[in-house]
Amino acid sequence: MLYRENGQFKTSYRADQQLLPVVQDRWLMLGLLAFAYLGLPLLASEFVIRALIVPFLILAIAVIGLNILVGYCGQISLGAAAFMGAGAYAAYNLAVRLPGMNFLIVLLLAGLAAAAVGVAFGVPSLRIKGLYLAVATLAAQFLLDWLFSHVKWLTHDSPSGSVSTATIELFGVPLQSPLRKYFLVLTVVCTLALIAKNLVRSHAGRAWMAIRDMDLAAEVIGIRPLHAKLSAFAVSSFYAGVAGALWGFVHLGSWEPAAFDIDLSFNLLFMVIIGGMGSILGSFFGAAFIVLLPLFLNQAPRWLGVSLSTAAQSNLESMIFGSLIVFFLIAEPRGLASLWAKGRQKLRIWPFPH
Amino acid sequence: MGSARETESGVAAPLLAVDGIDVVYHGVILVLKGVSLAVPEGGIVALLGANGAGKTTTLRAASNLLQAERGEVTRGSVAFRGERLQRLTAYDVVRRGLVQVMEGRHCFAHLTVEENLLTGAYGANVPRAQAMSELERVYSYFPQLKQRRASQSGYTSGGEQQMTAIGRALMAHPSMILLDEPSMGLAPQVVEEIFEIVRSLNTRERVSFLLAEQNARIALRYAQYGYVLENGRVVLDGSAENLAQNEDVKEFYLGLSRRGRASFRDAKFYRRRKRWLA
Amino acid sequence: MPPDSEPLRARWPLIALAALLGAGLAAPLATGAAAPGFYLEVLLGGLMSGVLYSLVALGLVLIYKSSGVYNFAQGAMVLLAALATARLSEVMPLPAAIGGALLMMVGLAWLVERLVLRPLVNQSPIVVFMATLGILYFIEGFGQLVLGNDIYKVDLGLPKEPAIVAQRWFDGGILISREDLVAAGIAAALVLALALFFQRTATGRALRAVADDQQAAQAIGIPLGRIWFIVWSVAGFVALVAGLVWGSKLGVQFSLAEVALKALPVVILGGLTSVPGAIVGGLIIGVGEKMAEVFLAPALTSGLGVAGGGVENWFAYVLALLFLLVRPEGLFGERNIERV
Lengths: 354, 278, 340
Known about the structure:
- The complex is a heterotrimer.
- By secondary structure, chain A is mainly alpha-helical.
- Chain A contains 14 helices and four strands.
- Chain A has a single domain, classed as ABC transporter involved in vitamin B12 uptake, BtuC, CATH 1.10.3470.
- A six-stranded mixed beta sheet of chain B has the order 6-7-8-3-9-10, with helices on both faces. A four-stranded antiparallel beta sheet of chain B has the order 2-1-4-5, with helices on one face. A two-stranded antiparallel ribbon of chain B has the order 11-12.
- Chain B is built from eleven helices and twelve strands.
- Chain C is built from twelve helices and two strands; from the N terminus they run αααααββααααααα.
- In chain C, a hairpin with an 8-residue loop joins strand 1 and strand 2.
- By secondary structure, chain C is mostly helical.
- Chain C has a single domain, classed as ABC transporter involved in vitamin B12 uptake, BtuC (Orthogonal Bundle).
- The chains are: A mainly alpha, B alpha/beta, C mainly alpha.
């Protein structure tokens, strides 16, 4: 009744192929964008924007990338954080060695560098599948970890192994306040999400999904596995690289190699699974869930009036986190995006049951 | 709810009685609506219908395998020998003598043919000595399997895999076998072979069968009774001879029209024809 | 085509890799960078640490072989069992402590089957894999909360003094740890028992069937829940053995669960479904890692100007990766049979 699609006829193929064919959806998206650009800066405190919204947005980019690889193309990757790191270090080197370069160009080049690394480590996917491929990506993770901490050139010969970045300047405007950084990240996210949504609807996306579902059959009808798989790795690593550069420059400011370790890789994979594999919207859901959860777990004992030692607290957090992951996988293995789709389905036929 | 039914077997209680079941997947997708059917003792019943009509779902509901695909029976009941199967687990159903051969065979690819057969005995808790004699019985029905007994099942042909799957079900010494699309992906000659074996199992070993088949022609040749499923509802049922003569069945499932073999020139006529679902 | 009928010349990539690795193995000796006695000690040390990896990997293979699930929490289970034994032995004699730890592992198996595996029947492998990751976080939190954070030693009463052999051929002889020899013996016995179990018994056959096709196994009446409880209990027992050996030799602390992550390249190299593969893989990884740590790292520092330390963090994975490229299912793993 509320979500009535009656009367919304399309008169051209172009109209029918829009991203948001239902009018209510379009209003919803417009409202969301307005809220993000206008409403949120007015309502939320600087702390919330800096500590919650910005990391959520940056990680969402990385999760979209990982979702393309894992959800759309079906290649398991346990090394997403390493590609983020590749982008971060590439951006750092560009910023330090070629100062004055436009930050957007830096982001673009960092993404391309990460994409090259991703393609290199994606080559094994042509021979191996499934869990065995996961090992190849783990090799990438540990190898890159080691490179970041042992190859002095990458950290510009920093003695401590950690790097720090200067303030970002965009078209002459220094981005110092959290609000300005937020706008930069928001714009990048919207652009990249739009590109991703269109990519997965295009021929490339269909090729990826064909490989995921039945790679032998896909090869037989003329989809080249080499192109499809490596392009998935390339696009995924590009997104991870841009996210990594933003993570390092905007969110962290300064970091050591451990900032892109295997824990982050696992977290990214959790975001993909919990958000929903093969769904761009799901990437946002997953990122939000995993960003908010530790904060929630952190604050919960205080709300309940229980005081615990920090060690006990962090152990309990681990336990609850693990149980929640399992619970979530049982309750909705296709992720939050699937819950959302079911909700919409119910809304369309409401008040009828099915 | 169903259409007027002609009971074939008279007064004897059916072996398997599906009574008005509704099946829902993921809580939102209604797949079966009020499906009822009965399989008499010693009979072969065919369940016909096109792709997506709900045949596999019906069989899964009977074997209690729906939960794995997030499906559940929300109304109605399934009874085997008068006992309701709702609360039982899948392996309890097998122990009671109702085994399913799944669509697409689903042999254990890395196990040899003989190991595949032996797992069938394990599932039904058949003691070892009896299992060996069952094995010989299966080999007598499927001599080809005896030849290939040491090959890994994944490397055997489609027909051999179908035989392995049926043989594996036989090892449990069932009173009834649910056969899901036995002809799928097989050469016509092999399909004939399989159906001949089904018939001889039915006459010699008194194993009842419920066959879900898209190939209506061959199914109606071997079955005694049939149900036609469309969009999750039973739309027609009757003895096999009556179904084979039925005009609608002939047109929709056997490719025949009143003028013999149908051709596309009759398409306009087809569309105007009132479907029984309207 | 079936693997046994492949001609030898089709296997050239594997032969080439073997030759390359053999050359790498012989290099320190050939170039005179190491004394023969020292070289042998490093080799033996690598073999012994490889045995430790193999014991952890055995549990992994067990679970994978019978349910198609890669149990990411296996390393944590090893440490949980070892820690439980260590803490319990503070208040009761060792055999009772071991019994108590075993009971705990069986209890864990029951919980995992009931709360995680049963609801996740027939989900895609990546979902169950993620669930084991969740179990990993849970065990880490639980173990440290209940059993403590420090390093503990487990005293099994194994001989501690090393034996010195071959004094005639090498200067000062070669040190072999008797403890390690016992560990190797235990591992060999376990492998034999497990291999026999899978190939010869009806339950072993049923386990392999479940790994191949869960749905079909369910359809023919194999009780999945009971099977998984048995498997995880046995895996828990294997984890206990591994934990005891590890605890006796190196001491156990929960942060070491990261090191157990190395079990993954071990099973990958050996083949996820192969019990003997776990041993062979473990030995190869163990030797490779030790050699890389001792001989490769200085070569990297002097040759490429990079600080060589920490090579062992990634060497196992890269080695496994190289093997995967020539043999995608691992050395002894089953070929993936796909029908189109």
